[in-house]
Amino acid sequence: MSTHTSLSTVTPGTGADLDKALLDQVTAAVRAAGDLLRERYTPQARGTSAEEIVTEIHANDDAVLDVLKAPLLASRPGANWAEDELAGGALPSGEWWVVDPAEGNINHVHGMPDWAVTATLVRDNEPVLTVVHLPLTGDDYTAVAGRGAHLNGAPLRVSAKTDLAAALTGTGQARPGEDEHTFRRIGSAVTQMLMNGLVVRVSVPATLQLIHVASGRMDAFWQFSDVRSGLVAGALLVAEAGGTVTDTNGNPWSLTSPDFLAAAPGVHAAAVTVLSPLAA
Description:
Blueprint: H1 15-39, H2 50-75, E1 80-81, E2 95-103, H3 105-109, E3 116-123, E4 126-134, E5 139-144, E6 149-151, E7 154-155, E8 168-171, H4 180-196, E9 199-202, H5 206-215, E10 220-223, H6 228-240, E11 244-246, E12 260-263, H7 265-275
Parallel strand pairs: 1-2, 8-9, 8-10
Antiparallel strand pairs: 2-3, 3-4, 4-5, 5-6, 6-7, 10-12, 11-12
Pfam family, one: Inositol_P
Cofactor: Mg(2+)
Keywords: Magnesium, Metal-binding
């Protein structure tokens, strides 16, 4: 994954000033969307049938997109909008907003606190700017390619661990209804990582585990998925915090990769050794 591309290569102006101006605009838009999503949150689960739960999820998405899409498109004239948040694979050339209006929507609907609003600008299939806003805490995780990753303005750095046996790692499913092969790979990978690591967290969404990797609280996260909206924000945050982002075979990660691994450099090779035999 190559992230060191200045935003000023596309839009005239001084790089640092332009990056900050755009980041400020995106942060404001994501915060406003987060305020709305927080107003919709209750500590009690909503819906008892699968149909009712899906209805609640779509209602959250629609409400947030109503206030998020227009300001993001206005902040970067000419950028495109990736409509399907569960889609994977490469995008056409140019700039694209890849957004999850309620990352961890299933948690929001079930009254749990692990959810966020994310917006990532992708250029020619490389994430170059991201904002992850946690409405319940007010925290903003931000990154601009080549300019580092930050939490509320303070620099982030990945873990300094070098022993996988001491590592806190994580994974989770990317979407409901994965095929049986993917579910069995997840189970086998968790078993192998439990045998080689310290503790494995299995939860959703991916972004909320990846912010912990970028912050040095967790040491690695993997997922057998190519869902863009769940990976691009965290990939940029981890890379800009000094982490290593690849597929589970150790090859550089891209939007065309079949799976994903982000880790502290000191444990990355050992994680690849554990996970690569399970690659598709």
